[in-house]
Specification:
CATH topology of chain C: ABC transporter involved in vitamin B12 uptake, BtuC
Helix content of chain A: 25-40%
Chains: A alpha/beta, B mainly alpha, C mainly alpha
CATH architecture of chain C: Orthogonal Bundle
Shape of chain A: globular
Shape of chain C: globular
CATH architecture of the largest domain in chain A: 3-Layer(aba) Sandwich
Strand content of chain C: under 5%
CATH class of the largest domain in chain A: Alpha Beta
Radius of gyration of chain C: 19 Å
Number of strands of chain A: 24
Largest sheet of chain C: none
CATH class of chain C: Mainly Alpha
Strand content of chain A: 25-35%
Number of domains of chain A: 3
Radius of gyration of chain A: 25 Å
Oligomer: heterotrimer
Number of strands of chain C: 0
Number of domains of chain C: 1
CATH topology of the largest domain in chain A: Rossmann fold
Number of helices of chain A: 17
Helix content of chain C: over 70%
Distance between the termini of chain A: 53 Å
Largest sheet of chain A: 6 strands, mixed
C-alpha cells in the first residue's frame, strides 16, 4: 500500500507556552484503519486538529500524496478530502438530518433549497454504508449512536477520503460500537482511509491495521496491530509499566453514610435510574462503575441534591428530598464534581475565593467575612495540597492538575464524613493523580465514607473497596472482592454481557 | 496584591486616555462638519470644566446621579443581571422625594433623610417585580424592566398632573423649603451635600460587594451560577436581591439628586441616568470603588460638552455620540482581557 | 366603547399602530435566529425615522426617503456588527451604547439641520402613500382596514412571506439558523458565523429602518424626538412571545398594536386618564411575558 499522507516534525506551541505537540510525525496508507493511541493529554487530538486545519502547527510539514500541502482551515481540509467526526457532535439539533448532512454544501434549485435531492442523496449514502438513519428526522430526536452516524454522513457527503474520528466509541453502547466498526470496515472496503483517536486497547486490536502511539506530545512508535499484544501496547502508551498501586490498609467499613432505596429518576422513555438501592459505609471507598450514561451520573446528582427523584435517599442519616444543597453539605457531605471548569470553580475568581465557597458564611462577623482568618486558612490549604500558582490571579490561569487540586482541597478540608468524588482525576497529570488518590485513601482510613465515580479502570481497581456496576439505569453487579476480580470481568458487567442475580 | 492594584489602575488610566482621545476626535469631526473653530472648541472642552469654581461645582453636581446609577448597575451586572429599571427607579425615587418631603415638613436633615430612605424602600419594592419574574420564571429582565420604566413614567405623569401637583404650579410637586432639602456644602456654587451621600454609597457598596458574605455570594452567582449552586449558595435569591438593591440605590439616587439640586419635581421625561449607569459601570469595570472616579471623568466630559455647546456651533448631544463609542471601547477591552485569560483551557 | 371597538376605524388604526411593532419584531426575529440580540432596534428605528423624514422632505420623494431610512437602519446594525462581532464587545452593552448613541444622534441631526429644533414639523416628510385596492377595500368593516392601508402594511405582508421562505427554504436561512442554534457546528463546516450574523443584521437593520420610516413618514408626517417610545422594545417582546415563529410573532405584534392604539384612541373615547391608558401596552407586555414564561416553565415540567 502506498503512503497517502505524511506529517513530519509537527510542533504545536500555544500562546501561553504550553507545548501540545513536539516534533510529532504521522503517516497514513491508503485504505487502512489507523489508530492514534495515547493517554489523556498525549497530544492526539491536537495532532488531528492540525491535520484537519482546525489548529495551525508552529512547525512542521504535511504532505498529501507526495505533495506538500498547507491546511489553513477546515474548509481547506475538506477540499483536500479530509473529514473529521468530533467527539462532541457538531450537529444542529433543530435541523433535520438531511440539512445537517449537507450543512454548508446545501444542494439548491435556483435560489431555494432542493430538499428532495438532499433527502435522496442522504438515503443513498445510508444504504451504501448500511446506516439506518431517517433523513427527515430532527437531529435532536436521535439517540447518540445515530447522531454519530449523521456526523459520518456529513463527512461522506463532502466526499472525504480520509476520515478522522475522535474517540468515537466513548459515548456508544457495545452494540452501537459493534455497528460502528462494521460500518467503518465497509468504508475501508470502499477505499476510504480511517483514523481513529482512542485509548481503548481492545478496539485497536479488533478494528485497526496500524497504531501510532503518542506520549507527551511526541510520537513514540508506529506498530502493526498483528505484531503486538495488549500488554505491549499499554506499555508503549504509558511509557513504563505504571500499574497504579495505592497503599491502603484493609477496609474497616463502619456505619451507613449514604443509602438509596428504590430510587427512580425518569428519563425520556426509559428511566435514567430504575429503582436503584445501595448503601455506602464509613471507612470504605465505594465505586460506582459503568459505561458513561448508565445512571451513575444520576445517582450522584440525587445524592448531592441536584435533581428530583422518587424513592428514598439518605445522606448521613437524613432523608434529603427537598433539602437544599447547603443543608446536605452541612450534614458533612463533600462533593468533587465531574467538571471543574463549569461547576467546580469560578474561573474568574481567585484561588482564595474558590477555596471558601462552601463555608464562607460560617466565618463572618456581622456579615463581614473574616478575611484574615480565611486567607490564612486558604494559604495553608494550598500548601497542604501542593498547589502551585499565583494566589491572587484568577484560577483560570492554573493548569488542569492544580485547578483540580484546589477543588479537592476545598472539599476535603471540610472534615467531611462522606465524600462524593466524580471523576476526580480526569484530565489531570500523573503527579496530581497520585496525590489525589492518597488524600482520598487517607480520609477513608480516618473513617470517612467515599463514593467514587470513575471511567478510568485502573483508578477503579486501585482505589475501590467495593464496586457497584451500573447498566441501563440498574445495578448489574456488586463486587465485594475487588482484589480477585479481573478487568475483563468488570467489563462484562459494564457492557451488560453478564449481570449478578443478587445485585438488585 | 499591590502589584495587581497598580496593574489595574494602569489599565484604567490607559482606557481613560483612550476615551479622551475618542472625545477629542469626535469633537474635531463635529467641528469640521459644523464649521466650529477647532481651537476654541478644544479649549472649551478641555479647560472649560475647570475654568472657575462654578464649572467645577457643575462637574461635582453631574457626578451625583452618575455615582448612584453607576453603583446600582455595577451591583446588578456583578450578579449577571442586565436590568434597566435603574432608569425608572431614579425617576420614581426623585418623584417620591418631591412628594414626601413637603408632607414630612421642615425638619432639618431629618426630612430629606426619611424621604430618601422611603424612596429607596419603595423603588426597591417596585424593582422586586422584574427581579422576581427573572429568578422564578426566567423572564428576561431586560425587556421587563424597560416596560416597567415606561409604566413608572406614566404613573408619575398621571400623579403629577393631578393629585401630587402643586395647585398653584402646574405639572410640578410642592415647593421644597430649604429645611426639606439636603444642606448645601457651598452657598455660592450651590454644591449640595448629596455628593457625600453618593460617595458613602459607593464606598458602602464596595465594602458590601468585596467584604461581606452577601457580596461574595452575589459575585459567585454572577460569575458562575452553577458553581454557586453547587457550593450551596442560593443563587436565585441573589439574582433577585441584586436587582432589588440596584433599584433601591437608584431610587435613593433620584431622591438625593432632587432634594439636593431642585426645588420641585417637574421632570417631564425620563432623564436617561439609568443608561448612563451602564457607561459608568463599564468604565469602572463594575467596581463600586472605581465608580466615583469614572463619574468624575464622565462628569468632566459632560461639562466640557456643555461648555462647547455654549459656543453655539456644536449641540450638547454630541456627548451621547462620545459616550456610545466609549462604552463600546471599554466593552471590547473587557472582553479581550478575559479572552486572553481563558486561553489556557486548551492545555 | 363597544361601538368604538367595532367601528371600521378601530381595526384600521390597530393595524396602523401595529406596523412599526411588526417590523421591530421581524428585526428581532432575524437577528435572534442568527444568535445575536439586537436590542438597539429601538435606536435604529429612531435614526431611520429622522433620516427618512428629513431626506424625503429635502429630496421631495418618499421613495428616496424610504430608501434612506432603510440604509440608515442597516448602518446602525452595522455599527452593532462592528462592536459586537468585530471588536467583540459585549453584545448587550453594545446595544445599550448604540441606543444611547441614537438618542443623541437623532437630536443632533434635527438640531443641526433645522437650527436647534427637536422635531421636524417645520420640514414635513413626504408621506409614504396609502394603497386603495379597488373592490376589496369596499368590503364592509374589514375592507378599508386591510385593503386601504398604507403601502408599508403591504410591504410588511410581503416581508412576512419572504422571511418564512428565507428561513425555511434557502441556504442563507439554514446558515442563519445554524449560527443561532449551534455556531460551532457551522464553523466546523466552513460557514462563517460572523459573516452570517452580519447578513442577518443587515436584514434586521432594513426591518428596523422600515419600522422607523413608518413612524415619521406614514403615521406622523414628521420626526419628533422620542417618537419610537419603546416600540422597538415591544417588538422584541412580541418576538419573544412568538418564539421565533414568523406568523405567531406577527400575531403578537398585532396584539400589542391593538393595545397601543387602545391606549391612544381611548383617550378621546373613554373617560379615563390618558397617562394611565398609556401604561397599557407596557403593562400588557409585562403580563404577557409573565404568562408566557409561566406556561413555558409548566410545559418543560
Amino acid at each position: 500500500m502506498s503512503e497517502l499522507l505524511c506529517m513530519k516534525g509537527i510542533t504545536k506551541r500555544y500562546g501561553n507556552g504550553v507545548l501540545a505537540n513536539e516534533d510529532a510525525s504521522f503517516s497514513l496508507r491508503e485504505g487502512e484503519i489507523h489508530a492514534i493511541a495515547g493517554e489523556n493529554g498525549a497530544g492526539k487530538s491536537t495532532l488531528m486538529k492540525i491535520l484537519f486545519g482546525a489548529e495551525q502547527p508552529t512547525e512542521g510539514t504535511i504532505s498529501l500524496r507526495g505533495k506538500p500541502v498547507k491546511i489553513s482551515s477546515p474548509r481547506v481540509a475538506t477540499e483536500l478530502g479530509i473529514g473529521m467526526v468530533y467527539q462532541h457532535f457538531m450537529l444542529v439539533d433543530e435541523l433535520p438530518v438531511y440539512l445537517n448532512v449537507f450543512l454548508g454544501v446545501e444542494k439548491r434549485k435556483g435560489l431555494l433549497l432542493d430538499k428532495q435531492a438532499m433527502i435522496d442523496a442522504t438515503r443513498a449514502l445510508c444504504e451504501k454504508y448500511d446506516m439506518p438513519v431517517d433523513p427527515t428526522a430532527l437531529c435532536g430526536d436521535l439517540p447518540v449512536g445515530l447522531r454519530q452516524k449523521v456526523e459520518i454522513l456529513k463527512v461522506l457527503a463532502r466526499e472525504a477520503k480520509i476520515i478522522i474520528l475522535d474517540e468515537p466509541t466513548a459515548v456508544l453502547t457495545p452494540q452501537e460500537t459493534e455497528q460502528l466498526f462494521h460500518q467503518l470496515r465497509i468504508l475501508r472496503d470502499n477505499k476510504h482511509t480511517i483514523v481513529i483517536i482512542t485509548h481503548k486497547l481492545k478496539e485497536m486490536k479488533e478494528l485497526c491495521d496500524r497504531i501510532t502511539i503518542m506520549r507527551q506530545g511526541k510520537t513514540v512508535g508506529v506498530v502493526d496491530v498483528c505484531d503486538v499484544d495488549e500488554q505491549k501496547l499499554s506499555e508503549l502508551m504509558v511509557g513504563s509499566t505504571v500499574r497504579l498501586k495505592v497503599e491502603k490498609a484493609p477496609v474497616r467499613a463502619g456505619e451507613v453514610v449514604a443509602e438509596m432505596k428504590k430510587v427512580t429518576v425518569p428519563g425520556s422513555g426509559k428511566p435514567k435510574l430504575d429503582s436503584v438501592s445501595f448503601v455506602a459505609r464509613a471507612g470504605e471507598i465505594l465505586c460506582l462503575a459503568g459505561v458513561e450514561g448508565n445512571g451513575q451520573q444520576q445517582a450522584i446528582e440525587c445524592l448531592t441534591g441536584q435533581i428530583a427523584y422518587s424513592g428514598s435517599v439518605q445522606v448521613l442519616g437524613e432523608e434529603i428530598l427537598g433539602k437544599s444543597i447547603r443543608k446536605i453539605r452541612d450534614l458533612g457531605m463533600a462533593h468533587i464534581p465531574e467538571d471543574r471548569m463549569t461547576m467546580g470553580t469560578d474561573q474568574r475568581a481567585s484561588l482564595h475565593e474558590n477555596l471558601i465557597s462552601v463555608d464562607f458564611d460560617r466565618n463572618t462577623r456581622l456579615g463581614f467575612l473574616k478575611s484574615k482568618h480565611l486567607k490564612a486558612r486558604s494559604e495553608k490549604q494550598l500548601k497542604d495540597f501542593l498547589v502551585k500558582g499565583e494566589r491572587q490571579t484568577p484560577i483560570s490561569m492554573l493548569s488542569g492538575g492544580n485547578m483540580q487540586k484546589v477543588v479537592v482541597a476545598r472539599e476535603l478540608s471540610q472534615q467531611p464524613r462522606l465524600v462524593i468524588a466524580n471523576q476526580p482525576t480526569r484530565g489531570v497529570d500523573v503527579g496530581a493523580i497520585a496525590f489525589i488518590h492518597e488524600k482520598l485513601v487517607e480520609l477513608r482510613d480516618q473513617g470517612c465514607g467515599i463514593i467514587l465515580v470513575s471511567a478510568d479502570m485502573s483508578e477503579v481497581f486501585s482505589l475501590a473497596d467495593r464496586i457497584i456496576v451500573f447498566h441501563e439505569g440498574k445495578i448489574a453487579a456488586e463486587i465485594t472482592d475487588v482484589e480477585n476480580t479481573t478487568e475483563q470481568q468488570l467489563g462484562r458487567y459494564m457492557l451488560g454481557v453478564e449481570r449478578m442475580e443478587a445485585a438488585q | 496584591m499591590k502589584k495587581n492594584m497598580i496593574k489595574s489602575l494602569c489599565s484604567l488610566l490607559f482606557r481613560l486616555a483612550l476615551a479622551v482621545a475618542v472625545a477629542a476626535i469626535v469633537l474635531a469631526g463635529a467641528c469640521i462638519l459644523m464649521d466650529g473653530d477647532l481651537q476654541e472648541v478644544m479649549t472649551a472642552f478641555f479647560l472649560g470644566p475647570i475654568e472657575d469654581e462654578y464649572a467645577i461645582a457643575e462637574i461635582l453636581r453631574e457626578m451625583v446621579p452618575l455615582i448612584f446609577t453607576g453603583v446600582a448597575v455595577s451591583l446588578m451586572v456583578r450578579c449577571g443581571q442586565f436590568n434597566m429599571f435603574v432608569e425608572g427607579a431614579f425617576f420614581g425615587g426623585a418623584f417620591l422625594a418631591g412628594v414626601l418631603a413637603p408632607v414630612l415638613g421642615e425638619h432639618f436633615l431629618l426630612t430629606p433623610i426619611i424621604a430618601i430612605l422611603a424612596a429607596a424602600v419603595v423603588m426597591g419594592a417596585v424593582g422586586y417585580i422584574p427581579a422576581k419574574m427573572k429568578s422564578s420564571l426566567g423572564v428576561n429582565e431586560f425587556v421587563s424592566s424597560l416596560m416597567l420604566n415606561y409604566i413608572v413614567y406614566w404613573v408619575v405623569m398621571y400623579l403629577i398632573h393631578g393629585v401630587a401637583a402643586d395647585p398653584d404650579y402646574p405639572n410640578a410637586t410642592m415647593y421644597l423649603e430649604d429645611a426639606m432639602r439636603l444642606p448645601l456644602l457651598n452657598e455660592d456654587t450651590e454644591l449640595s451635600s448629596n455628593l457625600i451621600i453618593a460617595l458613602l454609597v459607593a464606598v458602602g457598596s464596595g465594602l458590601f460587594l468585596f467584604k461581606t458574605k452577601w457580596g461574595y455570594a452575589l459575585r459567585m452567582t454572577g460569575d458562575n451560577a452553577n458553581f454557586a449552586v453547587y457550593s450551596g449558595i442560593r443563587a436565585k435569591r441573589y439574582v433577585t436581591a441584586s436587582q432589588v438593591i440596584g433599584a433601591s440605590l437608584a431610587g435613593m439616587g433620584g431622591a438625593s439628586f432632587l432634594l439636593g439640586n431642585y426645588y420641585r419635581f417637574q421632570w417631564a421625561s425620563l432623564p436617561n441616568y439609568g443608561f448612563d449607569g451602564f457607561v459608568i459601570a463599564s468604565i469602572a469595570g463594575n467596581n463600586p470603588y472605581a465608580v466615583p472616579l469614572a463619574a468624575l471623568f464622565l462628569g468632566y466630559l459632560r461639562v466640557g460638552a456643555l461648555q462647547v455647546s455654549r459656543l453655539g456651533d456644536i449641540p450638547n448631544e454630541v456627548i451621547y455620540v462620545i459616550q456610545a463609542i466609549i462604552i463600546i471601547l471599554f466593552g471590547a477591552q473587557f472582553v479581550l482581557s478575559r479572552k486572553k485569560k481563558g486561553g489556557k483551557k486548551h492545555a | 366603547m363597544l361601538d368604538w371597538i367595532f367601528s371600521e376605524s378601530f381595526l384600521m388604526n390597530v393595524i396602523a399602530y401595529a406596523i412599526p411593532i411588526v417590523f421591530a419584531a421581524y428585526a428581532s426575529l432575524i437577528s435572534n435566529k442568527a444568535g445575536i440580540s439586537a436590542i438597539n432596534i429601538e435606536g435604529a428605528m429612531s435614526i431611520a425615522a429622522v433620516t427618512g423624514a428629513l431626506v424625503s422632505h429635502y429630496a421631495n420623494s418618499w421613495v428616496i426617503g424610504l430608501t434612506a431610512a432603510v440604509i440608515a437602519g442597516i448602518l446602525m446594525m452595522m455599527l452593532l456588527a462592528l462592536a459586537a462581532l468585530k471588536l467583540r464587545a459585549d453584545n448587550f452593552l453594545s446595544g445599550i451604547a448604540l441606543n444611547t448613541f441614537a438618542t443623541g444622534a437623532c437630536l443632533l441631526i434635527v438640531k443641526v439641520v433645522l437650527d436647534g429644533r427637536t422635531d421636524s414639523s417645520t420640514a414635513p416628510s413626504v408621506k409614504v402613500p396609502n394603497v386603495d385596492i379597488p373592490l376589496l377595500s369596499d368590503i364592509p368593516v374589514i375592507g378599508k382596514a386591510i385593503f386601504g392601508q398604507n403601502l408599508l402594511f403591504f410591504i410588511a405582508l410581503i416581508v412576512l412571506g419572504l422571511l418564512i421562505l428565507l428561513i425555511n427554504r434557502t441556504r442563507l436561512g439554514v446558515q442563519i439558523r445554524t449560527a443561532g442554534y449551534h455556531p460551532e457546528a457551522g464553523e466546523s463546516v466552513g460557514v462563517s458565523i460572523r459573516r452570517t450574523r452580519t447578513i442577518a443584521l443587515i436584514i434586521c437593520g432594513a426591518m428596523a429602518g422600515l419600522g422607523g420610516a413608518y413612524l415619521s413618514m406614514a403615521n406622523l408626517g414628521y420626526f419628533s424626538a422620542g417618537m419610537v417610545s419603546g416600540r422597538g422594545f415591544i417588538g422584541i417582546a412580541a418576538e419573544a412571545m412568538g418564539a421565533g415563529m414568523p406568523v405567531k410573532t406577527t400575531l403578537f405584534a398585532l396584539l400589542f398594536g391593538a393595545v397601543d392604539y387602545f391606549a391612544v384612541g381611548g383617550q378621546t373615547v373613554l373617560s379615563f386618564p390618558y397617562e394611565l391608558l398609556n401604561t397599557l401596552p407596557y403593562l400588557m407586555t409585562l403580563l404577557a411575558l409573565t404568562i408566557y414564561a409561566a406556561a413555558h416553565n409548566k410545559k418543560k415540567g
